[in-house]
Write a structure and sequence with these properties.
The protein contains 20 helices and no strands. The chain has 512 residues and is mainly alpha-helical. The mean pLDDT is 86.
């Protein structure tokens, strides 16, 4: 197959420039409306449930979802779909367990919920460690995807491509804050859902609009095993561990949890999850079809030759079916996907550094509005530059795979403490701090010792830790540590505040 991937094309450059110009105009508009910390972090709590649902789906449907899953399905067959399934099923859990307490008890970050009835300093420091680790690893995956995409679309060096993404993203967040980020995510969600729908229809048209014909073609070309589990994940324990990470990691992602503070009340927070689940569910139903079609029509050898991680399967299919103009559009959509997600990550990282660490730990909760805004923008800049540098360092990894590891950190470091603070009366500051630190450190160490890093990256003959995804061990350890330490170091004040918190959770009395 002849492809223009890797060569600058007029259509790609035009779509790219239109998207960047439009979003920068939105940023200019948003900058005029971003004067206070509530406007900067929470869009003045003025976003409707429907808008937030679209923005949540825009924030969540990352490069890993679009480029990574289609690539994994194209190269590994059925097992690539485990990511699509895992990333979807966490949303109902988020709706029933976390959304309402989070909106009513917090202000800007998920650490606000922990700090409501636990001691501020230790909990906020531990939460910041768990949150920043999650966000940085997530940002690395997005930056790697961005670098690959722009390198292959425009023929630019990987490092320059990552820097371009970083600079544009910093412009959104530094000047427009959450208002600009929300609208960039809404536009991106509409573009992505529209673009992938057209791509799926064009792909199915090659098989008489019959998915069964498509699957028969996959089986004929690559064997029946491509339509059966076991191609990517052979161990049942590894499959369960990955499934837990993908499902429950969502409940520990700071940039997703932060979006619930942009709506006016808990009712709109619940609505936004319902809308987001619909949009995301639809997307995850159709993206595996794109992956299977790419494996048949483009061919695995061609996909691997362009990018060994498989991340270019969807753009290559777009070029085959719609020519260079459609490739340009899909490339711009993928770029929009990455920019919107990185903007959300950066804003969440900045809020953790400024709101949790500077305002509450360093200044003891006493910082003026202007001072908070200055620190927020400095924190944004620091986080953005760190993401750019690490993106360059981790060049060449599969994006969906890397994000799977991020979810292991999120479900181990952040989820156990957040859930227990909402549902368990005897949960204490010591239990929360120990749980977050043990979950975060254990997840990172086990990922480093797993086949993913120890063998694939460091080229050692055998991994010290056998599982590719450690969530089943690291998350369980975090829960056990939280419960044991809470019983060893009881805290009467925390128990007394639990009932107060329940009233605030269900009646929204005192919520911002």
């Amino acid at each position: 197959m002849q492809t223009s991937v890797g060569q600058p094309t007029a259509s790609a450059i035009i779509f790219f420039c239109i998207f960047v110009a439009t979003t920068l105009l939105i940023t200019y508009w948003a900058a005029k409306r971003t004067k206070t910390t509530t406007e900067y972090y929470a869009a003045a709590r003025s976003v409707t449930g429907f808008q937030n649902g679209l923005a949540l789906s825009g924030d969540y449907m990352s490069a890993a979802s679009f480029l990574g899953i289609s690539g994994l399905v194209a190269l590994s067959g059925y097992d690539g779909m485990i990511y699509a399934t895992g990333w979807l099923v966490g949303w109902p859990v988020l709706l029933f367990l976390v959304a309402e307490p989070l909106r009513n008890m917090g202000k800007y970050t998920f650490a606000d919920v922990l700090a409501y009835r636990l001691r501020q300093r230790p909990v906020r420091i531990a939460s910041a460690i768990g949150g920043i680790l999650t966000l940085i690893f997530y940002a690395i995956a997005q930056m790697v995807g961005a670098g690959n995409l722009i390198k292959l679309m425009f023929g630019l060096p990987f490092e320059l491509a990552v820097m371009i993404v970083g600079v544009v993203m910093l412009a959104y967040v530094l000047f427009g804050g959450m208002i600009a980020t929300t609208w960039v995510q809404i536009i991106k969600a509409c573009l992505l859902l529209g673009g992938v729908t057209v791509l799926m229809i064009m792909a199915l048209a090659q098989f008489n609009f019959s998915p069964s014909e498509l699957y028969s073609a996959v089986a004929a070309q690559y064997g029946q095993s491509s339509l059966e589990p076991g191609g990517l994940i052979t161990s049942p324990v590894d499959a369960v561990s990955l499934g837990l990470a993908l499902m429950l990691g969502l409940l520990g992602l700071p940039h997703i949890l932060m979006r619930f503070y942009t709506v006016p009340d808990a009712k709109e927070a619940r609505k936004s999850i319902v809308y987001a689940t619909g949009f995301i569910g639809y997307f995850y139903i159709i993206i595996p079809i794109v992956g299977f079609a790419a494996s048949v029509l483009v061919g695995r050898d061609v996909i691997k030759a362009i990018d060994k991680g498989g991340n270019m399967a969807a753009p290559l299919l777009a070029e085959l079916l719609g020519g260079t103009p459609f490739l340009g559009f899909i490339a711009a959509v993928a770029f929009a996907t990455i920019l919107a997600v990185v903007a959300g990550l950066t804003l969440a990282g900045a809020s953790t550094l400024s709101h949790d660490i500077y305002v509450h730990v360093v200044k003891g909760g006493k910082a003026g509005e202007r001072e908070q805004m200055t620190v927020a923008r400095v924190a944004t800049f620091i986080f953005g530059i760190t993401a750019i540098l690490l993106g360059i360092l981790f060049k060449g990894q599969n994006v969906a795979f890397m994000v799977g590891l991020v979810f292991a950190i999120a479900c181990s470091a952040n989820f156990p403490a957040l859930l227990l603070s909402i549902v368990w009366k005897k949960f204490t500051t010591a239990g929360a701090t120990a749980s977050i630190l043990v979950g975060a450190i254990l997840a990172v160490v086990l990922i480093f010792l797993s086949p993913t890093v120890w063998v694939d990256i460091l080229k050692n003959p055998k991994a010290i830790f056998p599982l590719k995804n450690p969530a089943i061990f690291s998350m369980t350890a975090a829960f056990i540590v939280a419960i044991v330490v809470s019983y060893l170091f009881p805290e009467k004040e925390s128990e007394e505040k639990f009932d107060e918190g329940k009233v605030r959770t269900y009646l929204a009395i005192g919520s911002e």
